[in-house]
Design brief:
This protein is mainly alpha-helical. It contains 13 helices and six strands. The strands form three sheets. The chain has a two-stranded antiparallel ribbon with strand order 1-2. Strands 3-4 form a two-stranded antiparallel sheet. Strands 5-6 form a two-stranded antiparallel ribbon.
């Protein structure tokens, strides 16, 4: 009787091990697919495969920590990317006059629209989820037995750089959602990121999505403009020139706000160092010298003429 029980238990353990091996292998394939399709039209399929990883491993999160970390990491990338110009979340809006009485919801007249904010919130969720798995993932090796846990491109992504990437996604999302005080606290502790000479190198090192960078530069501009106008200016230019430089144009309301600060609100005027041409919204360079507006320099703003009595 004991021998039969032992044999049955051994068979059960063997079946479980085989099933586990299959899960690790399937997860690796899913991660490889999602990692390879962050820059094309497959965002929804990538998201689904990554969500399957989290669902299939939720009963053993510690055992699958490394794969779950990178699934959450990639989901944060997917939703950050979708929040720019490829949203696949939708939300329903209803005119205020048609909400209906208490306890009722009037559906007539409602309409569906893309939910940018939904993707921003999802990027926060998955970035936070991944960061919570960091310690356990860092203790994992590249294999489970003979099974490779990650595709090569993810294994070559340093965990520290991936974690920094997630911090940037979180901070940028906070800025987009209006949490400026939280953003300021984080950037106060990130001097390299707000240093123009170092910033882009860090973003490249951390593997930050190129299309997200205009939002990052707009965030840094808003942080710096009250501290050092000269330091804020080049970030402003990178933000408003996002379409040409990074393949993503910020919403018009954001670029207009930045342009207004440069032209009317800053205490200095930014001009071409050769022709003294002032900054022109929408232009990329001086119409006289051809010098890029990124290389403009600050000059004292001329005093406004005093108003005469009666004017």
């Amino acid at each position: 009787m004991f021998a039969r029980t032992s044999s049955a238990l051994a068979c059960a353990l063997l079946v479980t091990a085989c099933a586990g091996t299959q899960v690790w292998e399937e997860n690796c394939v899913r991660l490889e697919y999602a990692s390879a399709h962050l820059d094309d039209e497959e965002l929804i399929r990538s998201a689904r495969r990554l969500e399957w990883i989290l669902a299939d491993t939720q009963e053993a999160p510690q055992e699958f920590a490394l794969q779950r970390f990178y699934a959450s990491f990639l989901l944060a990338q997917v939703h950050a990317r979708a929040s720019l110009d490829r949203p696949f979340f939708e939300e329903t809006s209803t005119a205020a006059s048609r909400v209906g009485g208490i306890g009722r919801r009037e559906t007539t007249g409602s309409e569906t629209r893309p939910s940018i904010e939904g993707h921003v919130a999802a990027s926060v969720y998955y970035a936070s989820l991944a960061r919570g798995m960091y310690d356990r993932a860092a203790r994992s090796g590249p294999k489970h037995g003979e099974v490779t846990l990650l595709p090569d491109d993810l294994w070559n992504t340093d965990l520290n750089n991936a974690d920094a990437n997630l911090q940037i996604i979180l901070t940028t999302a906070y800025a987009r959602l209006g949490f400026s005080e939280e953003v300021a606290k984080i950037l106060d502790e990130s001097p390299d990121l707000v240093d123009f000479e170092r910033c882009e190198g860090l973003l490249t090192r951390y593997g930050v999505l190129r299309e997200l960078r205009p939002w990052i530069f707009a965030m840094i501009f808003d942080y710096l403009k009250v501290k050092n106008e000269e330091s804020a200016y080049p970030f402003a230019i990178l933000a408003v020139e996002g379409a040409d430089r990074y393949g993503f144009a910020l919403p018009a309301r954001v670029t207009k706000r930045i342009d207004h600060w440069i032209v009317d609100e800053a205490s200095v005027v930014f001009v071409c160092p050769e022709s003294r041409t002032a900054y022109i919204p929408g232009a990329k360079k001086s119409p006289i010298s051809g010098i890029a507006q990124l290389d403009y320099v600050p000059m004292p703003r001329p005093a406004k003429p005093a108003e005469r009595p009666g004017e």
